Amino acid sequence: MTAINFDALTQFLQSLIRVETLSGGEKPAIDLTAAEMQRLGFDRIAIDAQGNLTGVIEGGQPGPTLLFDAHCDTVGVAPGVPWQHNPFGGDIDGERMFGRGTSDMKGALAAMVHAAAAVDKIRLAGRVVISASVLEEVLEGVALSAVMAAVKPDLVVIGESTNLNLAHGGRGRAEIHLETIGRPSHSSSPQLGVNAVHLMLPAIQAIDALDLPTDPLLGPAIMALTDIISEPYPGHSVIPSRCRVTYDRRLLAGETAAGVLSQLRALPGLAGVNVTVPTGEYAAYTGVKLTSEKFFPAWKLPADHAFVQSALAGLRASGLSPELGAYRFCTNAAYSAGVANVPTIGFGPSAEGQAHVVDEYIELAQLRAVARGYQGIIETTLG
Predict the structure, then answer these.
(1) What is the spatial distance between Cα 375 and Cα 63, in angstroms, rounded to a whole number?
(2) Is the Cβ–Cβ distance between 327 and 160 less than 8 Å?
């Protein structure tokens, strides 16, 4: 194992933070990461039609393919919300680097690249692939599916935040739309119309009373109302004839779109309400359009699975003391584990709550530790 150059790692992360890369605008980060992979001596570097970047380190002997994935798109910075540090400055204050994407999740991406490059590849049986994927913030796992089709990994590591613990499961996410159709009338004569918002109220009340399942690893399923839209809007002297409600449904392992929809449609308050999982479409920076039903499954890997245990051994050999747990939010593992059924774990810097916040930051000690941890996972899994 070659020692990781932590100064170079820190500088590389700063360069990633200094470029704004909203979903569909990831090209600056992709270009920077490709150049860094080239500088560090990766064996092969490729960018696919969707804009995902992969870099390959070939081992000295045949063996499995170990894929590390980190998305390089970020959420935006709301105008008018005050930051104490430039969100695109990569400012270092004490032992913290500040900026949008430091924790979610350019820090993990930078650490993966430098960790893989520093491994003694002659001693590896297999290959390491680092993926800088796109559009995760809007379609979890959809772009990663193209990466996996190309590299055919046997094992996957997701770099989303775990606070240096090891995740062997994660909740999924679904978007649920409810729609009611009424009949418009002048608001001075509401009795002549049918108010679509009033038609929706029993459905909202029924869902509020819904008993959702829970899981000892993943926690409770969640059904959170996120918006209500009536039409026409603004309603100038007219009774609304259409109402749509959106729910964010956090999923547990084994739940399916058909099952979730059937449960809702069976509720007494939803008679006559149209219940669907919508389809999302987003354009990659390459111009390719990604389309997917907005249902991203949950997943679990047994704690005694060989990959979980080898990863634990590698992290401990790197001087870390990880606990086992699970992601409470949705990640690209919704595809790698939830759809493709490839053994997947999660390991990353920072706590989950540091994503998407004002003055997002990463502890430099965690940046260094996660890079050592990635090396450890590589060595115990492919060594």
Answers:
(1) 17
(2) yes
Cis ω on the peptide bond leading into residue 234 (within 30° of 0)?
yes
Q: What is the CA radius of gyration of the chain?
A: 23
189 CB-side CA count, 13 A: 6
d(CA 203, CA 275): 10
- Give CA–CA dist 338/154, Å, rounded: 15
Q: Tell me: pLDDT of 2 over 90.
A: no
CA distances from residue 158 to 133, 344, 383 in whole angstroms, order as listed:
11, 7, 20
Enclosing H/E stretch for 63: strand 61-71
DSSP 208: H
Sorted by sequence, the CB contacts under 8 Å of residue 206 that are 6+ apart come out as: 267, 268, 269, 270
Dihedrals φ, ψ of 381, to 5°? -85, -35
pTM here? 0.95
The token pair at 304 is: 């005694």
> With contact defined as beta carbons under 8 Å apart, do 141 and 67 qualify?
no
Please choose, from the candidates 77, 82, 134, the residue with its C-alpha nearest in 3D space to the C-alpha of residue 105.
Answer: 134
For 15-39, how does the pLDDT look when each residue is reduced to its tens digit (9 = 90+)? Answer: 999 999 999 999 999 999 999 999 9
- SS3 of 128-161: EEEEEECCCCCCCCHHHHHHHHHHCCCEEEECCC
> Going by C-beta distance under 8 Å and a sequence separation of 6 or more, which residues neighbour residue 83?
77, 98, 358, 359
